[in-house]
Amino acid sequence: MSYSIVSVALLAMAFGWAIQLAGPSSARADELTEVANRSLNEPGIFSTAEPSVQAEVAGQPQRRLKGAPPDPCLKNLPVPVPQGGAHRVIQLVNCSSQTMLGAANAAARFGTPLTPVLPREKTWVLKPAGSPNNANVLTIDIPPQWENTKPEGSVGPRLWARTGCRYDVASDRAQCETGGCGGKYDCSKAKLGASVGTTVSEWTFYEPVESGDHKIKYFKDSPDISAVDGVNLNMDIQPLGGSPKDPFDAQGGHDIGWLAENYPLSQHGKDLRAAGKCDPDFRLKRSDLTTGLYAFVIVANDRKPKGGDGTVACFSNCARYAYPTPPDKSCDASDRDSKCYKWKAFCLGDPTQYGQKCTKDSDCPVAGSCWDNPGSKLDHTCQGRAFIKKNTCPEKVCTFPYNYRDPVNGTVFKSTQPPFGNCDDVSTDKRDCIGDDTIHEVLPKAYSWPNDPQVYGGDAKAYRVIIAPGGTNIPITPLAPIPVCSTLPGIYDYSKWYGGAGKCINGNTDCHPCDIELNKNGAVFGVARPRPDSWSCNLPPAASGNDGVICKWK
């Protein structure tokens, strides 16, 4: 874990609900066939771990939170071995009781093309925990192009889960309540990231490192869990084997951020969407996704979400003010009640607000901290910070705080992060700030703000990214195929928009608005909207369709 922050980290909100690149547009009769036919008994999907890896895993205690029972979802899962020349492999594991879609971006070192990935299972579908043949697991070999993405300008690997999706593999389309990527099924192939409100694992793989005296060398992985964009589901990252502590510790120091010493990173069995966890003003509900820029949740005739309302994600302080689109960094932050001011304070969105010399916090704009950080070039400069709702936060919740004391050797760190601010430092309206302490109650070792010191280190050949570790009893909208347009509720007025086969061709005058696009131009998908709004009759391959419900004409 690096604690000498060279400059303020800027949040890169990965809004997957933006317009995406073009993709194939052919239709398929049954989108769910791949789920029904999927078999993880195919050769090469899961390989028995080589003896050295088995020994590494067997020699490590299976860490879990004090008092928490072992997670049955993880029991007896195979330990994968990297294949095809890869040095690292990831298991994406669904521990919930609902089917969902996994996802990854496309990553690359600076100056090289973005490289997509596809799981060994040849699908992004994650079946529920306990499914036969470990169908709740996807296995991703890390390509060499994803290694050592540390250099500035690189695009680092990201992995996550999507919930509440309607999808069609053949046309590469998916509309998801959380984790969506511009309406695409294969986010990695589309070179897109996750939508706001999504928990994301971020990585640097296989970075060559060596001690100052060149006596110790190894390849280091640096994962983290980001809740900066908000949280759809709890997440954890588990090393499978590797060194129990940083190899550099052999020279007398101690790396406080070694993953094997810090796992688990989250509270297994907890869900930030649960009652009493997420503040009402920070909940992203299904009903919020029925109008405006994001209107893809199907409504019933009473205009309420079909299947019921419910919380699909919980925003962080930053995510709330970056949603649905972030302000421009040149926005006027002079009004402390404005979205601009809160975005700059919580998201660190304007780098010009940080770095100047100071003597006290009041010298710093947008509620920044004057960081007393002796020995660092950031000493007594204005920097971003976390903001907590309560007056104090226990170290086991708000981890690696200012003045953190290493329990191994007693070293005290002022360089982990500046002292916490209080929500009142940004706004006196308690509804304006959820508090980083609230996020950390479920995800104590995840990023909740852009410079949160939660990047870990490891050298294992295999890792698990665990979705909903310990399970969740909070509803998750089921996976489903993209609907046929004629099956939508009556409020969508299907018959007003399409008159049937043969209409409005060969000189017919009794035309409905979508007749020509469908009967003459061969439209496959439309975008339906409830009355009085208009439909889009022919959805182009490159369009996301997020401002309505994507449906198939036939």
Structure description:
This protein has 9 helices and 24 strands. A 5-stranded antiparallel β-sheet has the order 3-2-5-8-11, with no helix packed on it. The N and C termini lie far apart (53 Å). Among the domains are: 68-328 and 437-481, Thaumatin (Sandwich); 483-554, no CATH class. With 554 residues, the protein is mainly beta.
Which helices and strands occur, and which strands form pairs?
Layout: H1 33-37, H2 51-58, E1 89-94, E2 100-104, E3 125-126, E4 137-141, E5 158-162, E6 166-168, E7 173-175, H3 187-190, E8 200-202, E9 207-210, E10 217-220, E11 224-226, E12 235-240, H4 259-262, E13 283-285, E14 311-314, H5 317-322, H6 339-347, E15 369-371, E16 381-383, E17 387-388, E18 404-405, E19 412-413, E20 421-422, H7 436-440, E21 462-467, E22 480-481, H8 494-497, H9 515-519, E23 525-528, E24 549-552
Parallel strand pairs: 1-21, 6-22, 17-20
Antiparallel strand pairs: 1-4, 2-3, 2-5, 5-8, 6-7, 8-11, 9-10, 12-21, 13-14, 15-16, 18-19, 23-24
